[in-house]
Amino acid sequence: MKKLIILGVIALSFAFAVNFAQAQVVRTAEITIPEEGDCVSGTLYLGATLIDDDYDPVQWAVRKGTCAAGTNTVLGNVDGHNDPFSWTYVVGDGTYTHTFSAEANISGWDERNYCFIFNPKEDAGEADIRLTVTFDVSFDCDNDNDDVSNIDDLCPGTVVDTPDLGLGVNRHVWYSDEYFTTLIPGKKPRQTDSSFSIADTYGCSCEQILEKLATITHKDYEGHYKYGCSKSVIEDWINLKQVNMCEKDPDNNWQCKEEGATGVFSYFANNPFAPMYINAEGLVPDYWYRVELVNKGSDCCTWEPLNSGTAHDNRVMYYAQADSEGKLFMEFVHDINGYEYVEPNVKNADWVPLSDDAPYEVSSEWIYTGQGWGFVLYGKTTFPKECGTP
């Protein structure tokens, strides 16, 4: 009997402790993005959190020129709107941590003040939470104050360069002015304004340029981190062009980014003979792939492979093997001089034919007939010019 009494006391104590812990949860919320007074252009990102002792649904809205309820709503899940958003939660120690996020293309919005309202619903007896943040929509926003508007800025939060060993002769770094700084050679080398402005580099300093180029070329650029960017590196960045590559499903629909395989083809427009780079993912691990460059003709309707051969004649083809995670990197050079519209494709190169009903997202091969199924990446745009441009 004593054991039963003791066990009963322990059980009651545990239940009391749990209920007490839950009772101590303070219902709090915070808007994480945007911040009050932010200037926004292009894409609007919204974020907020809620901590409570149970799950609660949420109401939210963005209103033009006011935070008042039911007035000038342009985005949200109230007032007849049903715009997409994410509302998730994680449970731990009697708390429910909710996370809200949403985004929208605001390029067509009026340039003026807006208000984001975050209003999670409350249970009976709970305090009402209604948070607001006002922000401005403008096409001339420059949140990092580098004199490059957000819409043109490829490096939000531009950082001042600090070369590891100091600025080298004929190298270029950005010290927060309109122009980069360079070091002119001579008996007494002197610093002066570079010919490159921060606007020329799309709001990116030397170190940010190196970081972005490294992800494309897989080079370390060690000497440029030591002494600053060379003229050729900055020119490569300014002239960098990229073609998004997407997968086509069996119904001939594009599957890009989140769906299926994806890749980016990069080249430097100032020199068609410069190295070209393929970075792809979502491929079949450990399989070999090849690049096919196709002349689309002056009307973009031609199909003339520029570097194709037969199944056993691979002298002019460019190959690489996907790694164990299905990622692929390839660097090659091909003369495209004289062609207006060239389409880059990445196709499986194992030369094992599959039947035409090979299922989507299953190990895919290059078929002898020249027809690709599944993980075949197509250039969604062409180079050196995009189809349709004069």
Question: Mind explaining what this structure looks like?
Answer:
- The protein has three domains: 28-137, Immunoglobulin-like, CATH 2.60.40; 150-237, no CATH class; 240-384, Immunoglobulin-like (Sandwich), CATH 2.60.40.
- By secondary structure, it is mainly β.
- It has helices at 2-23, 206-217, 222-227, 231-238; strands spanning 28-33, 39-40, 43-52, 58-64, 73-76, 86-92, 95-105, 113-120, 131-137, 172-173, 179-184, 190-197, 240-248, 254-255, 262-268, 276-281, 288-295, 304-305, 318-321, 328-332, 341-348, 377-379, 383-384.
- A hairpin with a 5-residue loop joins β10 (172-173) and β11 (179-184).
- Strands 13, 14, 15, 16, 17, 18, 19, 20, 21, 22 and 23 form an eleven-stranded antiparallel beta sheet that branches.
- It is globular.
Topology, pairings included?
Blueprint: H1 2-23, E1 28-33, E2 39-40, E3 43-52, E4 58-64, E5 73-76, E6 86-92, E7 95-105, E8 113-120, E9 131-137, E10 172-173, E11 179-184, E12 190-197, H2 206-217, H3 222-227, H4 231-238, E13 240-248, E14 254-255, E15 262-268, E16 276-281, E17 288-295, E18 304-305, E19 318-321, E20 328-332, E21 341-348, E22 377-379, E23 383-384
Parallel strand pairs: 2-9
Antiparallel strand pairs: 1-3, 3-7, 4-5, 4-8, 6-7, 8-9, 10-11, 11-12, 13-14, 13-15, 13-22, 15-16, 16-20, 17-18, 17-19, 17-21, 21-22, 21-23
